[in-house]
Amino acid sequence: MKLNLDSLDRRRFLRGAGVALALPVFGSAVNLSAGTASEALAATGQSGTNGDSPRKVKRLGCFYFPDGVPMPLPEDPAYQDWSWFPHGNGTDFTYTKCMEVFQPLRDHVTVLSGFSHPAVRQVHGHSNADQFLTAAATGSDGPYKNSISLDQVYANHIGDQTRFSSLVLSTDGGTGTPRGTHTISFSRTGRAIPAEHRPKRVFDMLFVKRDADAARRLALSKSALDELLADAKTLRRDLASDDRERLDEYLDSVRQAEQRVEKAKRWVNTPLPTVESGGLDLDVSPEDPQRYVQTMFELVYLAFRTDSTRVATYQIGRENAFGISDRLARAVGFNLAHALSHETKQPGGWERFSTYCGFLNREFYRFASRLHDTPEPAGEGTMLDNTLLLFGSASSAFHLSQNYPIILAGGKAMGFKHGQFVNHAGSSAVGGLFDGVPEPWMREPAKDDQPLTKVFVTMLQQLGLEAESFAGQTGGLSELV
């Protein structure tokens, strides 16, 4: 007897421990109802140090900004001051005005040039954020499939040691759309993990006591998950092979939800950490862009400081000029951020674009400095010594998906060497004004970049994983350690 999908409770949405599940839609010959597929919400368990004795911790933070960076050509008078990339190579380099904010942290920062993901080097820059941490061949159009992001690889390894496996943030919130993502975090099946964008919601999740009914709701969630898995196993027998694959992928999400429920049960009676919120404006929005970005970075700092999580991502803005994040340029007196990348041929255009990128650099520097100035609560050195930070974009010059502007900071206690400009682009880096078709992304590169996955592999290795490859690319980058 074939199972009627209508017999499964379509209203079985599980609320509690960050779980919301419904069955996906299949095309097989069973009596189907028009259901709504939903992904398990972001990988958010529940956190703290669980009463264990202090131990050495390793944290990872990844931060993304859209629209690339200013890259005037060497013959342009703007090149000396307003280029994003430093001048020089190795330890013999000079920051430009766009980057000089990092000078006090020079010995804790490495700038990378000449790195990108091979599968997407000919993709238009408007589609880039999706693959920044995954290296997947997401493409500019056609069928879309993503893969697990760097942060979630580490979260899967370390996330059971803290209340929250990872903290996923963005300015625009949610998941966005394929090739227009609002999140840079993707699950093991390549599903976008929704990002939180409301500072008060993030603070409450991390530090405000939950209601006393949490344990009962967790028990109900576990019971409902067990029922859903039993129903799904029966359903699987009546599905065609392609739908079985979809169901198996879906069941992986259910199993992840199961793991989050079990983890939440372990933490439900553990007191939340106490922090002072007096200096935070938790009701701030991107309409006050500087304060908003500072608040989002401060929430990541507090999550790390209290060991609520050891993995965080923040997508500062989405690509292609959509979303409230495009208004962040108002922090430095301009209107829309994306427009600045198009207007560099106007008088003062390079300086304006560089000033906006300098604002982003300054806020990241402020965050890294907070970590540097805070002694490590769980060990030796500073929090920055035990926290690895990746800051960058998947575009460089106008819509160009090559030569990503990348900063790697922190992690000295993990063996990282800093105070260098690892410049694999050299003099072949594309830049200059946008002068019509073909756009830079359409042109053949003068030479191939190094795979950015080399950086990812080294990051994972120094974070403690036995990683030899990432997204099918093998090998690390010896210059970093």
TrEMBL record:
InterPro entries: DUF1552, TAT_signal. The keyword Coiled coil applies. It comes from the Bacteria. PROSITE patterns: TAT. Residues 225-267 form a coiled coil. Keywords: Coiled coil. This is DUF1552 domain-containing protein. It comes from Novipirellula caenicola.
